[in-house]
Specification:
The complex is a heterotrimer of chains A (151), B (306) and C (492).
Chain A lengths: L1 H28 L15 H19 L13 H20 L1 H15 L5 H22 L12
Helix pairs in contact in A: 1-2, 3-4, 4-5
Chain B lengths: L1 H17 L12 E5 L6 H17 L3 E5 L6 H8 L7 E6 H5 L13 E11 L1 E5 L7 H10 L5 E5 L4 H13 L4 E5 L4 H7 L5 E4 L1 H9 L3 E6 L24 E9 L4 H16 L1 H9 L3 E5 L1 H13 L1
Parallel strand pairs in B: 1-2, 1-3, 6-7, 6-8
Antiparallel strand pairs in B: 3-10, 4-10, 4-11, 5-8, 5-9
Helix pairs in contact in B: 2-9
Chain C lengths: L1 H11 L2 H19 L5 H8 L8 H26 L7 H13 L3 H36 L2 H13 L1 H4 L4 H15 L2 E2 L6 E2 L13 H20 L16 H5 L2 H16 L5 H15 L11 H25 L5 H12 L8 H4 L1 H33 L3 H18 L4 H19 L5 H23 L6 H4 L1 H27 L1
Antiparallel strand pairs in C: 1-2
Helix pairs in contact in C: 1-17, 2-3, 2-4, 2-17, 3-4, 3-15, 4-5, 4-6, 4-14, 4-15, 4-17, 5-6, 5-13, 5-14, 6-12, 6-14, 6-17, 7-20, 7-22, 9-20, 10-18, 10-19, 12-13, 12-14, 13-14, 18-19
The chains are: A mainly alpha (151), B alpha/beta (306), C mainly alpha (492).
Chain lengths: 151, 306, 492
């Protein structure tokens, strides 16, 4: 019995998190105008209905989860690290430039995934950067963040 | 190409002697023309034609960059955050300035200098071929007896289209049911499909269906009639004292030196005389609407106050 | 009719036109493969190149890019589980399963064959029935579009049939996220937090890239260990008999796809999902869908390529774009002083019939290059996953940035990446969000517009016949998996 509650834990915590976020947004709708025009729905009505329905089903899910939902979830250290890495990458994009940062990310991510063939990584870094540069810069001429190297 | 550049350099060298030294060299590097709508749209095409045809008149390449979002707000805040040296300018429209306050805040009418109005895009009020309405007075009479029953579609809310409908309501003392659509062509489609009664549309949005005889035009919103709607009376002719045209132009940050503004304005004036630009206006059913920089700002301010 | 056909083929039987078709197909496939460059972006990117070209050549080039772009998206969807275009999210459901089973060749070949057949049937429908189909486009008003959106959303009950509650939770997340931005009617801001970029709503392409591409990077890195190996992939191709036996699927989906393509605003994504659902509904091996069923690859691919022909119907006959890509095509036509509309068939017959013929030839070119490509793609995905992941990550970033030249879109992409990662981690289906994001806007806007037209009277949805029928179908398809489940339980 005790064991079962423990297993259900993770899925229920996630459901609760979703409900909590939905409630915050539901509260925010209060600031949106509620006066409709002729035969018209107010701006706030539609999001309110959607969020209401969402909260209703999420609560159903919380109390009556399906068998199999109770699978335990491991704490995602590497997953979170990779998200953080990408966030830093995006943050620095405008400042440093796409074609300086990308090789770096191309190098770090495989290491994070546990890959240790340095030569293969190095070759892929050079090859991929060259191909991306070729397609976006030379063929399609799409402007990318240039960073301090200038436009 | 090289020769062209050399001539350009010489021209600027000569003008350097006559105009103030600080701005003498403008433009000495490529100019960025920010466009607030997506590639391929009518607005984007105008920007690209100005860029393409303007290069030889101003002596530097002009690069179009699309900054879409927030009904132009993204492009405007981008332009205001760049150096005010005249190398970053942007396209504007009436619907964009219509949403701005005259002054104050981070973006307002007086945050910009208005280089020139380039084109004007009048409205045509259309109904389906089998509609009982043949003139504006038919419509007004019906609306007087049936308030809120006539469904009028137009582009977006708080738009020039909606403003025009409200003006007509006020002048004729009637009530119409205005229904906003996401694109300019959608109301025309809805009229063709019989889902609404009247559409407010620019010529480019209704021309082909009109020429095929599937639409009737009740009125045009210009001062005088224009081709190919020579048989369609203006609103004024039908006792509705209103002239409403949409326009598109070019503007820059308010701190850009007047010399640069003047040069850009001269360039646009020359672009408008190019046969290729005239052909573009013709094929996209727009009219030339040139207003020079000294009058354009005043024009925009007056329109916003209304 | 034969005269027109001959006129069409003779118009494009020039070296520049044929070259344009081949180049267009290649560019389209490449853009389709790259997430972020959807068919419509690819076409928009090509427009400036066509400035100085002959009108026929330029329009044939753009149509080829459009067609191949819709196909190209399925390659990455099958190969690495990252749909290159929104429509390919449906192809991924079964296609990626096959790759996981080590059989990418089956899915990739089926996809290119189904796409090309779909494209051809779409072209034939465009040629034969453009007049009557144009009236279908006109008959859809606000209540009809609302009903179509409800019908599309009802598919979720079959997409997520093994866990309905989670499917609907995800759908409502999508519908809610779609409300961010300016209210289309009052012009008021909703949940924009003062960011001007968000006034236009969350970008759909960044959302797609985040949910699939970025999220898969996070998930895989999380799972990866030093010892993890890539699956052994076979180069096995489907037998011709196997491909031929699916003729009903191709035909059914292509017809459905072209009709959906005709409706302005609906587009390839909706077509893909509806075709997938309909073929599943009528299939004898329902339970194999989602587990690597070739029919589940063929249906959406035939459907979304048939959309190309369909969306050209209202474009050429009425001058109304049937999809976002078609809107760009109209701009390109007008650049060449060609007014799409009712008179086009008389004034520029050579161009209209040239487009039919061009579309047809482009399908053949697509089939040829697609088949050549299959072994190449298998080779690419045989590379160690640890080397593929960073490539996906960097393309995701550049793809979402180039969508609008905006760093805000890249953050939106990362946000959706996080969401997709969490949903996968907690075993939620992801594809309902895509459907909800595509349909959410159509749903709300047309619901409210209908009520404005009817002055607040809800009966408008059932008094309009098309709307009533679609809503009835929606209820049926919503209930059918539940009823089938009950029935199966009773039997056992």
């Amino acid at each position: 019995m005790n064991n079962k509650i423990k297993i259900l834990h993770h899925d229920r915590i996630f459901t609760l998190l979703l409900v909590a976020i939905a409630v915050i947004f539901f509260y925010m709708i209060g600031k949106i105008s509620d006066t409709p025009g002729i035969g018209e729905l107010a701006t706030a009505t539609y999001p309110r209905v959607i969020l209401g329905a969402f909260i209703f089903i999420a609560i159903l899910q919380f109390f009556f989860p399906k068998k199999g939902d109770e699978k335990p979830v491991s704490f995602p250290v590497k997953g979170l690290l990779s998200i953080l890495l990408i966030a830093v990458y995006i943050y620095l994009l405008d400042k440093v430039g796409y074609f300086l940062l990308t090789p770096l990310v191309l190098f770090i991510l495989p290491l994070l995934a546990g890959y240790r063939q340095y030569l293969a990584i190095a070759i892929s870094v050079i090859f991929v950067t060259a191909v991306l540069y070729g397609i976006f810069k030379l063929v399609l001429n799409i402007p990318l963040p240039a960073g301090f190297l200038g436009a | 190409m090289l020769l062209k550049k050399m001539i350009a350099v010489c021209t600027f060298a000569v003008s350097a002697l006559t105009i103030t030294p600080a701005m003498a060299a403008y433009p000495e590097k490529p100019i960025t023309l920010v466009c607030w709508s997506s590639p391929g749209s009518g607005h984007d095409l105008m920007a690209r034609y100005i860029a393409k045809l303007g290069e030889k008149h101003i002596g530097q390449p002009i690069v179009v960059v699309n900054k879409k979002g927030g009904k132009g707000k993204v492009a405007m805040s981008y332009v205001l955050n760049q150096k005010s040296d005249g190398y970053v300018i942007m396209t504007n429209t009436r619907s964009m300035t219509k949403r701005l306050k005259p002054t104050g805040g981070s973006i307002a009418i007086d945050s910009f200098k208005y280089i020139s109005r380039v084109v004007q895009d009048p409205f045509v009020i259309v109904v389906k071929e089998d509609s009982p309405f043949n003139t504006m007075s038919d419509l007004v009479t019906y609306a007087k007896n049936n308030p809120n029953k006539i469904k009028v579609g137009g582009y977006s809310t708080q738009s020039v289209d909606e403003g025009l409908v409200h003006d007509i309501e006020k002048i004729s003392k009637i009530n119409l049911n205005y229904i906003p659509y996401k694109g300019g062509k959608e109301p025309v489609v809805a009229v063709l499909g019989g889902h609404i009664d009247v559409a407010i549309a620019n010529p480019s949005e209704m021309m082909t269906s009109f020429q095929a005889g599937k639409l009737k035009a009740l009125a045009v919103t210009t001062e005088d009639r224009f081709s190919p709607f020579d048989d369609t009376p203006t609103l004024k002719e039908q006792d509705i004292n209103n002239v409403t045209v949409h326009w598109r132009g070019v503007m820059a940050s308010k701190d850009v030196p007047d010399e640069a503004i003047q040069k850009l304005d001269n360039m646009i004036q020359k672009v408008l005389e190019e046969p290729e630009f005239k052909k573009f206006l013709n094929s996209s059913n727009m009219l030339s609407g040139y207003i020079s920089n000294d009058k354009f700002g005043e024009y925009v301010t007056k329109q916003t106050k209304k | 009719m034969i005269d027109n056909l001959l006129l069409g083929f003779s118009t494009i039987a020039t070296f520049p036109a044929l070259f344009a078709i081949v180049a267009g197909v290649l560019i389209g496939i490449i853009c389709g493969v790259l997430p972020g460059l959807s068919a419509s972006t690819a076409v928009a990117l090509m427009v400036p190149f066509t400035f100085g070209m002959d009108p026929v050549v330029s329009i044939v080039l753009l149509v080829s890019v459009y067609l191949a772009g819709e196909y190209g998206g399925s390659i990455t969807a099958i190969a690495i589980g990252v749909p290159g275009t929104p429509a390919a999210a449906a192809t991924m459901l079964d296609g990626y399963e096959l790759t996981k089973q080590g059989k990418p060749g089956l899915a990739l070949t089926t996809s290119v064959v189904a796409s090309s057949i779909g494209g051809m049937i779409g072209a034939i429908i465009l040629f034969c029935f453009s007049e009557p189909l144009a009236n279908v486009a006109l008959s859809f008003g606000a209540p009809e579009y609302f009903a179509l959106a409800v019908f599309g959303l009802a598919i979720i009950s079959s997409l997520a049939s093994d866990n309905l509650k989670k499917g609907f939770i995800v759908m409502f997340i999508g519908l809610f996220l779609k409300t961010i931005g300016l209210d289309p009617f009052s012009g008021e801001e909703r949940f924009t937090f003062g960011v001007p970029k968000l006034m236009d709503g969350l970008g759909f392409i960044p959302a797609l890239i985040g949910l699939f591409a970025m999220a898969s990077v996070f998930t895989d890195i999380d799972k990866a260990t030093a010892k993890s190996r890539t699956i052994a992939l076979s180069f096995a191709m489907p037998k011709i008999r196997q491909l031929l036996s699916m003729w009903k699927v191709y035909l059914h989906s292509s017809i459905l796809g072209s009709i959906i393509g005709v409706l302005p605003g609906a587009g390839a994504t909706i077509a893909s999902f509806i075709c997938y659902n309909e073929v599943k509904r009528f299939s004898k091996k329902k339970d194999q869908f989602g587990k690597g069923c070739l029919e589940g690859v063929a249906a959406p691919e035939s459907g979304n390529n048939a959309v190309v022909g369909g969306s050209l119907v209202p474009l050429l006959t009425l001058g109304i774009p049937g999809s976002g890509t078609a809107a760009v095509l109209i701009g390109a036509l007008m650049l060449h002083d060609i007014q799409p509309g009712p008179l086009l068939f008389q004034t520029n017959g050579n161009i209209v019939y040239g487009i039919f013929a061009g579309l047809f030839v482009a399908c053949l070119a697509q089939l040829f290059f697609g088949l050549i490509g299959v072994p190449v793609w298998i080779k690419v995905i045989s590379a160690p996953k640890a080397l593929l992941l960073p490539v996906i990550a960097s393309i995701s970033v550049v793809g979402s940035y180039s969508y609008n030249n905006s760093i805000v879109d890249v953050w939106v992409m990362l946000g959706f990446g996080l969401l997709g990662y969490l949903l996968k981690k907690f075993n939620y289906p992801v594809s309902p969000i895509i459907l909800a994001l595509v349909l959410g806007g159509i749903l709300e806007e047309n619901f409210r517009r209908s009520l404005m037209i009817s002055e607040g009277d809800f009966s408008i949805f059932v008094t309009h016949p098309i709307s009533a029928v679609l809503l009835l179908f929606a209820v049926l398809s919503l209930l059918s998996p539940i009823l089938f489940n009950r029935l199966a339980k009773v039997k056992s």
